[in-house]
Amino acid sequence: GAPKISIFLKPPGVISPGGSTTICCSYQRSSGKFVLYRNGDQLRTLDVRGSRAEFSISNATQEDTGAYNCHYVDGSTVLARSETLDVVVEEFHLPSPVLSVLPGHEVAAGTSVVFRCSIAQLGAGCFLYLEGQLKALKLLPRDRDDFNVSHVHKGYEGRYSCQCFIRDASFKWSPLSQPLDLVV
């Protein structure tokens, strides 16, 4: 397969109207340009700084919702494409969840850790995010707020956050939790 561009949101998750986020695209070359598309339409082009480009969305509106991807181009040649990143802009109707990690923020390799996303809302499911990943790491089903990881290693290091939702006639979302950093 062709080389892939990595694409992710920073911070991850659903964005509230008026909120902001950054779409990050990275690729292992540094001589071309990144082109950002939403729903197949070209939006912006950025020269590469190092091997990464950052496209900011500020004062988000419903029009920012969509399927985004990045192409890496050199002249008129597309050298690589990213997977699709879904950006969602929705009002927040739930309280903020609280993310914690046991036994703590710094653990030895091989240790088991538990991520806990707590929210004062019955029947909420939550997503656990690791910054730099395209998709949520884990969907925590309704009323289960723990995500257990046995034998953590350096690959688990990073900035985690969670976001919760309930689904009735439509989805109702919480803001993102405060992030926490795991050091292995």
Automatic annotation (TrEMBL):
Instruction: Specify the Ig-like domain's residue ranges.
Output: 3-86
Name any one Pfam family assigned in the record. ig
Q: Which UniProt keywords apply?
A: Disulfide bond, Immunoglobulin domain, Signal
SMART domains per the UniProt record, alphabetical = IG
What GO biological process terms does the UniProt entry carry, in alphabetical order? cell surface receptor signaling pathway; immune response-regulating signaling pathway
Q: Span of the secretion signal? A: none
Among InterPro entries, the record links this protein to: Ig-like_dom, Ig-like_dom_sf, Ig-like_fold, Ig-like_Receptors_ImmuneReg, Ig_sub, Immunoglobulin_dom
Q: Which PANTHER family match?
A: MHC CLASS I NK CELL RECEPTOR, OSTEOCLAST-ASSOCIATED IMMUNOGLOBULIN-LIKE RECEPTOR
Q: What is this protein called?
A: IGSF1 protein
Q: Look up and give the organism this protein is from.
A: Galbula dea
Q: What are the leading ranks of the lineage? A: Eukaryota, Metazoa, Chordata, Craniata, Vertebrata
